[in-house]
Amino acid sequence: MEADPVLLARFQFAFTIAFHIIFPSFTIGLSAYIATLEIMWGWTGREHYGRLSGFWTKIFAVSFGMGVVSGIVLSYQFGTNWSGFSAAFGNIIGPLAGYEVLTAFFLEATFLGILLFGRNRVPRGLHIFSAIAVAVGTAISAFWIISANSWMHTPVAYEMRNGVAHPLDWWAIVFNPSFLYRLTHMLNAAYLTAGFVVLAVGARYLLAGRHLDEARTMVRMSIGLLFVLAPLQLFLGDQHGLNTLKHQPIKIAAMEAHWDGSKPGDFHIFAWPDPANERNRFEISIPRGASLILTHDPNGLFPGLTSVPKQDRPPIHNVFFAFRIMLGIGFFMIAAALFGGLLLWRGRLFDTRWYLRIVAQTWWTGFVAVIAGWVVTESGRQPWMVQGLMRTADAVSPVPAATVATTLAMFVVVYGIVFTMGMYYINRLIAKGPQEQLVRPPKKFSAGPLAAAKGDA
Amino acid sequence: MEWDLPLIWAGLIGTAVAMYVILDGFDLGIAILFPFHPDEHERDRIVDTIAPFWDGNETWLVLGGVGLLVAFPLAYAVIMPAFYIPVIVMLLALVFRGVSFEFRTIAVTSKPMWNVAFWLGSLVAGFSQGMILGGLIQGVDVADNKFAGGPFDFATPFAAVCGVGVVLGYGLLGATWLIMKTDGAIAERSRDQAQVLLLAVLGFMGIVSLWTPLQFERISERWFSTPNIFYLWPVPIVTALVALACWWGLTRERDNLPFFSAIGLFLLGYLGLVISVFPYLVPPSLTIWQTAAARESQMFILIGTLPLLPIILGYTVFVYWVFRGKVREGEGYH
Ligand code: HDD
Ligand code: HEM
Ligand code: HEM
């Protein structure tokens, strides 16, 4: 088969952004957790909060570093891979990305220096402030980039002149119709992801009988958070889906593998969609389940895939299966969080070993659900780059396929090395655990040594 | 009065690129000189001089890239495909450089590997940046507002010379930074290195200043036609004076003067380039006005930039102040 530059560019972009999103989904949540620990430490003065914050800050430093370098790659890839898109939609996407740099990236990068190295140099108040600044910075970053991304799904308030989009109303562009649904669902996903990692590490220590003070705090805090956020995610996701039905009905049809819009939709627990024959094989379904969820009426109708020509349909397998992975993990998370809450209430949380054994192994669930969720969203928009306005095939840069293939291979190798080593080092930090000796925060600015995230200082 | 927004934005992006080149320049520079500091404790101390700052420094690169997309989307859409290979090589090199900061402090047996990654990543990143710069001065093949050349158009001897020049320049910034931020053996050694590097940088500035007007008529036109030459003759003179100040600071063992005069040299070289290519953003065909974003877009983000940029500069200065002074032996704890 002839190498297709569009396909390669898509592969490359999907690979680099899926790699990137792993780190934000962890660091957005973890930075908020660290800020909370710092505040609790300052407030209660209890040492184990300080030890925990120091411990997670080291892990944070490693993940944040990988998030930053992979993000920088992305900000250039809009041009290297999608120059057609940049030229046509730069007027709209550019300013949103620009505000992300100005309001978020500088904030997080600068205060990161104080958070990592300032422990024994700056007054405690400023150190707490830096932790909060980093956490807020990561959330602001999500705000702008999700706004840009949402506009590509639900474009509004623009005018096309000679093939170039011109903005008409910035407020409407930033708060485009799918933005708040996507932002809340994504931020909540990030807090869930970090919550399950903290829970897993705490459970590991409890099972091993190490760092018991810290482990109890970690498990208690994460269960408390997940108890609220895991069910909330179901609600947010449902609202998001209803909104998508209004704006991108074909994406919903792909998520439900719903071909014929003249009949009510079943909810397929499992199926193998067969795009060639426009039907599903091996269906295990809840009759009229999809109609009930989407229209609140078992006889309700919603558009099917056959309502648009074949070339306007998304790659249905990606969308359909990724959606089921996300849902499965979502329901697992709800079950784990609610049961953990019950154990906590009964006072049995720290010695129900079978439960701890399960959650000690499920640290990865959030990451997989996040990537699956993005595959649903992004694959579901295909073949459009900007819904209804620009096809992905028209957005690609004039770069030969061989060049894209070579750099794709380079990305895979480099990211493979970096990811493997990063995981290995994070595991080593976790195996070492929170450290005893602590630097006391000084009363005022001092010229003390660098208390890096690395050392045990 | 109508504001000339494209001109304002060209100034702002020019500032972002200059900030990047200076701030990440010394980060990359100390790493480029890594092999010449053989002692592992000294290396740790060298990394400690930039550890709190590098992430913020690198963010100026993001601002430069995204700024181009914001204000001149057409230029962005031509330049990125034109320099596809060196841009991606630079980004991958920066990946290695960036993760080495954290990895080398945790690593035990693999630390030498991350030292190499830190050094090579920085070297390759600097060289690629120089190649991109050289390729841009040379000019880019554009047809119908799209890049129309081949993937290796950028790779000429001139671009390679620019690459080497940028690497040496970063080395000079790095060495003078270490003179300012350390003492003892590291500072001694850096002083010697800086003298060699200063001479080499001046040599390369000379080569580029002769080569460009000889090869590119538009550039000799710019510099040597009347009345331009009457306004432009101070540029080389001031450059010579700043170079003298740097040399004087190095031989008289001043701590701060070499670093700041090295910055001065960079800025003057940069000014020279701007004079050579203005008003083209993609020489020899697209000007800043032809590639500008919609007025509404440039205005929307300018309104935010005007208050935000001083705030960003404010807290950047603050962090440099918090971590002021020399990083002494035994201070950076490992
Ligand atoms: C602001 C823009 C933006 C943002 C925030 C995201 N994407 Fe995206 N994504 C695109 C802009 C985009 C794109 C440039 O529009 C692509 C490239 C090709 C295409 O059609 O859309 C795309 C494609 C694309 C594909 C390939 C889909 C296909 O070709 O079938 C995947 C798997 C992802 N993305 C995954 C993600 C992930 C994991 C993200 C989490 C951060 C993400 N996207 C955020
Ligand atoms: C196409 C889309 C994206 C681009 C171009 C992009 C670009 C970037 C860049 C350039 C950085 C490095 C900033 C620095 O120097 O500190 C970064 C980091 C970051 N990005 Fe993205 N990003 C994208 C998608 C996303 C999404 C979807 C999210 C979150 C929902 C996100 C959240 C973050 C966060 C929190 C960081 C901080 C670093 C970290 O947490 O590891 N980004 N991104
Ligand atoms: C429990 C039930 C859940 C439901 C009903 C649900 C629903 C949805 C829907 C409908 C979309 C597609 C939105 C679109 O049209 O573009 C989506 C996307 C997404 N989901 Fe979920 N989701 C659930 C759980 C989760 C969980 C547990 C996570 C991660 C921890 C997650 C992370 C994401 C992400 C990152 C996206 C892509 C960004 C976005 O469009 O918001 N979801 N989800």
- How much of the sequence of chain A is in beta strands? 5-15%
- Give start-end ranges of low-pLDDT stretches of chain B: none
CATH superfamily of chain B: Formate dehydrogenase/DMSO reductase domain
Distance between the termini of chain B: 58 Å
Q: What integer value in Å does the Rg of chain B equal?
A: 20 Å
Global outline of chain A:
globular
Q: DSSP strand (E) fraction of chain B?
A: under 5%
- CATH domain topology of chain B: Formate dehydrogenase/DMSO reductase fold
List the SSEs and their pairings.
The complex is a heterodimer of chains A (457) and B (334).
Chain A: H1 5-44, H2 47-81, H3 83-117, H4 124-153, E1 158-161, E2 164-167, H5 170-174, H6 179-208, H7 212-247, H8 249-256, E3 267-274, E4 279-286, H9 289-295, H10 316-346, H11 353-361, H12 365-381, E5 384-386, E6 390-391, H13 392-395, H14 401-432
Antiparallel strand pairs in A: 1-2, 3-4, 5-6
Helix pairs in contact in A: 1-2, 1-4, 1-6, 1-12, 1-14, 2-3, 2-7, 2-14, 3-4, 4-6, 6-7, 6-11, 6-12, 7-8, 7-10, 8-10, 8-12, 10-12
Chain B: H1 5-32, H2 40-48, H3 54-71, H4 73-82, H5 84-106, H6 111-138, E1 142-143, E2 146-147, H7 157-181, H8 185-215, H9 217-224, H10 228-232, H11 234-251, H12 257-277, E3 280-282, E4 286-287, H13 295-322
Helix pairs in contact in B: 1-3, 1-6, 1-7, 3-4, 5-6, 6-7, 7-8, 7-12, 8-9, 8-11, 11-12
The structure holds CIS-heme D hydroxychlorin gamma-spirolactone and protoporphyrin IX containing FE (HEM) (2 copies).
One protoporphyrin IX containing FE (HEM) is lined by residues 182, 185-186, 189, 192-193, 233-234, 237-238, 240-241, 244, 251, 326-327, 329-330, 333, 366, 369-370, 373-374, 376-377 of chain A.
Structure report:
The complex is a heterodimer of chains A (457) and B (334). In chain A, 70% of the residues lie in helices and 6% in strands. Chain A folds into 2 domains: 235 residues, no CATH class; 164 residues, no CATH class. Chain A is built from 14 helices and 6 strands. The radius of gyration of chain A is 24 Å and the shape is globular. Chain A starts with a helix and ends in a 25-residue tail after the last helix. Chain A is mainly α and 457 residues long. In chain A, strand 1 and strand 2 form a beta hairpin. In chain A, helix 2 packs parallel to helix 7 and helix 7 crosses helix 8. In chain B, strand 3 and strand 4 form a beta hairpin. Chain B is mainly α and 334 residues long. A two-stranded antiparallel ribbon of chain B has the order 1-2. The model of chain B has no long low-confidence stretch (mean pLDDT 88). Chain B starts with a helix and ends in a 12-residue tail after the last helix. Chain B is globular, with a radius of gyration of 20 Å. Chain B has one domain: Up-down Bundle (Formate dehydrogenase/DMSO reductase fold), CATH 1.20.1630.10. The longest helix of chain B has 31 residues. Chains A and B meet through helix 2, helix 3, strand 2 and helix 14 of A and helix 3, helix 4, helix 5, strand 2 and helix 13 of B. The complex binds CIS-heme D hydroxychlorin gamma-spirolactone and protoporphyrin IX containing FE (HEM) (2 copies). One protoporphyrin IX containing FE binds next to helix 6, helix 7, helix 10 and helix 12 of chain A.
